[in-house]
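Hi L., both proteins are below.
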Amino acid sequence: MSTALERSIFILDDEQDFREDLGEFLEGHGYRVASSGDARFFTDAHMADHDVLLLDLAMPSIDGMEVLKYLSRRPKAPAVILVSGSGEDVIRTVADAARRDGLSVLGLLHKPFDPEDLLHLLEAGPSLPPLAAVSPRRDRKVVLDALRLALAAGSLPVHFQPLVLADTLAFAGAEALLEGTVPGIGFVGPSEILAAAAAESAVSLGITRHVLEQAVALCVRWRGLGWDGKVSVNLPIDALLTAGVAGALTSTVQAAGLPASSVVFELTEDALYIASSEALSALARLRIAGFGLALDDVGQRQSGLLQIANLPVTEIKIDMELLRDARDWGKARSVFQSIADLGHGLDLHVVAEGVETPEDLALVRGSAVDLVQGFIVARKMKADDLLGLLKRCKDRQTSLVAVSGTR
């Protein structure tokens, strides 16, 4: 994050007194400030010269939504702080649209606001990062060909992010995640990897088995060091639909000498809406074999939640975007609490993803969440690094959070 003296802010608001007073305040704290009351005068040159745009959504000439669309079409846009006197629902809807268009939203302010709140947003960095991909997407056939080669060589990198118990912060396991690099072509986002793999069921299942092999090998290692805890592996719907998937996954785990009860397969919330009889049969086979099943990203779509009862899942993972909204939005907190209550009412374990701060931890504990995953615990890491953390925990007789270095 740049220091105040290195950053320039453009205020786009039709209230002259507001612009002048706020500009004087920011300049007094070391920021360079420019402003305008007419969006028609905010040009590409202004974007190149400013790090942050403070944008009023309601202006007489061109409204804030048009300005955001204009920014989204430019190769490099400033981060945005949205300002409005409208209701909270309105400004959050606009923020969500901006993020889906690839813009970084530093935060939301409701008029009138305390200028100190603006300083906090400027210093804290993006609280609402882009939802859209900001890097150019690669040709799916190129990615698919590279994935075939990586699977044949066993070189697709896998990292792990630990989970802890919400109440004691004791180690409870880890989730295996694609690192985001495909050998031969470099960085490719995990979602893009899975989208390319979906074109060929053998590749999709191959990725799942590769990640599972790495995951169970690590789980065996930490069990050998005296640690309990399950390992979680994502199971894409297209891999789930592959013939013989339950048997293939079961044999992979058995070959490692690990009990099925130590493995949890994670399904996306989309499984609620597109699960076929074949998928449901595969899920039933996995549960009969003793595996756990988690429903991931719950709350992302926030609909059809009662259909959770139709799947044989053992836990639900509340989507990190919902937790991010729940930090300062009462409605989102109510939805978060309702999902946690629903999970417990169905006798499921409830996991909160994206827990980053002590305030987040207090919020999820207040909702009786069982397990916690996020930066407050640790970022995803290599298997050896996770084992090193666990060793330091044992040596110091303390929690994983205390030795991870993320706080």
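That was the first. Here is the second:
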Amino acid sequence: MTRTPVDVLIRRLDPQVPIPAYAHPGDAGTDLVTTEPAELAPGERTVLPTGVAIALPDGYAAFVHPRSGLAARCGVAMVNAPGTIDAGYRGEIKVIVVNLDPRESVRFERYDRVAQLVVQQVEKVRFHEVAELPGSARAEGGLGSTGGHAAWTGTEGGNGYASVGSDREGQ
């Protein structure tokens, strides 16, 4: 099924910055670049400007996702992944990155790809307060309640937190 692309208005705040584009057919995200060089020592974080601002149609939001290559090769993560760009926001898109590598600094040059932008349709909701929620198969299980990791030993008190790294109860 071929979909009609959603029209998004974009303003270049830096005249040389490339318009975000899909690297490959079928990609969900377009590449965002930084317009300023930066160097992050281990554990440091910074806010990288992208040189673009957008106007999304009502009913849409854009989500700034990290790049897997930066994470795998350099230990770079986004502090607030994904970052949310609401339809009403008109300011510059910025990316908050952190260097998680314990030993090596990471350097960004002007126009390095630093994140991906994914535009999605979002629903408006109305909240209805109730005294009790209806039951479900999952109930209150969360935060690792399905296991799947060698350190998993179960939950304590049904709070969804794993009891990891101790043979003694309560530790």
